[in-house]
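User: Please predict the structure of the protein below. I'd like the answer in structure-token form so I can feed it into my own downstream comparison script.

Assistant: Understood. Taking the following sequence of 298 residues as input:
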Amino acid sequence: MSATSKPVNNAAWWLVLPVILCVAFSAILPLMTVVNYSVQDIISPERRVFVGVEWFVEMMRDEELHGALWRQIQYSLSVLLIEVPLGIGLALCMPAQGWKSSATLVIVALSLLIPWNVVGTIWQIFGRTDIGLLGHSLEALGLDYSYTGNPGDAWATVLIMDVWHWTPLVALLAFAGLRSIPDAYYQAARIDGASRWAVFRFIQLPKLRGVLMIAVLLRFMDSFMIYTEPFVLTGGGPGNATTFLSQYLTQKAVGQFDLGPAAAFSLIYFLIILLFSFVLYNWMQSIGTQDQAGAGHE
């Protein structure tokens, strides 16, 4: 050991040990249980048969799983394409200072305070044609709207419900990013005579990249695991129109009590979310690198 090097204090590991134990208890141990179930046929609590990868092969060939996965991908992409631009636009319109800014922040965040099952109940009532404002208004306009009988109406209602519930999260993150931009950038833009679009394109949007990456990943992962809202609103129907992956998994595990296939699908579900999040993160990182390289050449 050199005279200038400092001794390593390993006592800090004892401080993080409780966190490691909590993570092991809440995440790793349940995951190992699911892995154990995924390679066994649970005939009874006392009788189990090792089946290897049989349940994984069965799940990969399941046509209902393919349909639920396709609906899930369409839904998550729709959520991102609507909520991210809408959240940015809302953040740009929000007052930056004063009591109006505080009041706007509180109003925008109201929908985020509502529990997921209550959100489904609100829109269940809101969409009814007899007592709901949305359903009654659409019926008064001559539109044949029924989220319980028409697959397209059910899909649109679930999507609009999610947009109403979670766009404020994107808006709040974007608002925080906008407030962190130093005023010197705006002063330089005013001196150069930059247009409003140029300020957004070359100052605000690049500076928002970090928070937007967080917003996109959060909204993607959350939308890919959505369960409570569509379950309360439509029950997955009509037919399988709003049956997403999480509800399909619940039907397997709870409704049919197929613990082996459900455990195998849980692992597949986890890997799908991990893969999509990894691809999405690297894609956004590559876009940021290209923009920085282009700005450097300019």
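That's the full token string. The first strand starts at residue 40 and ends at 44.
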